[in-house]
Specification:
The strands form four sheets. Strands 2, 5, 6, 8, 9 and 10 form a six-stranded mixed sheet that branches. The longest helix has 17 residues, at about 1-20. With about 230 residues, the protein is mainly beta. The protein has two domains: about 30-120, Immunoglobulin-like, CATH 2.60.40; about 135-225, Immunoglobulins (Immunoglobulin-like). About 5% of the residues lie in helices and about 50% in strands. The chain has one helix at about 1-20, and strands at about 30, 35-40, 45, 50-60, 65-70, 75-85, 85-95, 95-105, 115, 120, 135-140, 145, 150-160, 165-175, 180-185, 190-195, 200-210, 215-220, 220-225. Strand 3 (about 45) and strand 4 form a beta hairpin. It comes from Arenibacter antarcticus.
Length: about 230
């Protein structure tokens, strides 16, 4: 009887150990609206300046559901909807720039996975669009960083324009919020800038992107502290 009990316990341990634990979700791949594009497929909502857009993405492994997050870049307002499939619809403002991403989730694990973030314009009555607000790469807003041996830090950002006529950037940088000091104007071929800084100081900066049609877009103020 004792040997039988030991054998049963051993088999139970093997059975328990043989079960695979739930794996963390994998990031989804976005499909539509396409990156840096104009979305023209929205369905009009009567009596409003909104249209219903269907977002879609490619299924990711180890995922039960997805959170779709779409942010109006003019108002910085984010809408979130959960979906168990690979698409979801949202009513969004016409003629406005948006960013969107998908978060893959599984109720059996705490980890989630974020997709890339794509930008698009929801079609409106205009025939020309302002550039997308510049996306800060570094320094991340709220971060504390070190200056280099030349007492400088690198401001780095990404810019895009659905009309492909992005002309350049105006860079505002100062120790006051909001920054009102225009330190330089750059062509669209350059999206980074070395600036001189001092230790134990908080700096604020923003980018005004402009195109050949005279349209412009300003991103949110970013801040960082120098050690």
């Amino acid at each position: 009887m004792r040997s039988l009990a030991i054998t049963m316990c051993f088999l139970a341990l093997i059975a328990c150990g043989g079960k695979d634990s739930t794996k963390a979700p994998i990031a989804a791949q976005l499909a539509f609206p396409q990156k840096n594009s104009e979305c023209t497929t929205g369905q009009d909502v009567n009596g409003s300046n909104t249209s219903i857009v269907e977002f879609s993405w490619i299924a990711s492994d180890h995922t039960e559901s997805y959170d779709l997050r779409a942010t109006n870049l003019n108002t910085n307002t984010t809408q979130t909807v959960n979906s168990s499939s690979t698409s979801a619809k949202l009513p969004i403002e016409k003629g406005s720039p948006y960013s969107w991403l998908v978060v893959s989730k599984n109720s059996n694990v705490r980890e989630t996975a974020r997709s890339e973030t794509w930008l698009f314009y929801n079609s409106g009555s205009t025939t020309t669009y302002a550039p997308f607000p510049a996306a800060v790469v570094a320094p991340k807003s709220g971060s504390t960083i070190s200056k280099d041996l030349n007492n400088q830090v690198l401001l780095d950002w990404d810019g895009a324009d659905v009309d492909n006529d992005l002309a350049g950037y105006k860079v505002y940088f100062s120790t006051t919020n909001p920054p009102t000091t225009l330190i330089t104007t750059l062509t669209s071929g350059k999206s980074n800038l070395q600036v001189s800084v001092s230790s134990d100081t908080v700096y604020y900066w923003r980018i005004v992107s402009f195109d050949l049609e005279g349209n412009s877009a300003t991103n949110a103020v970013s801040e960082f502290k120098v050690r």
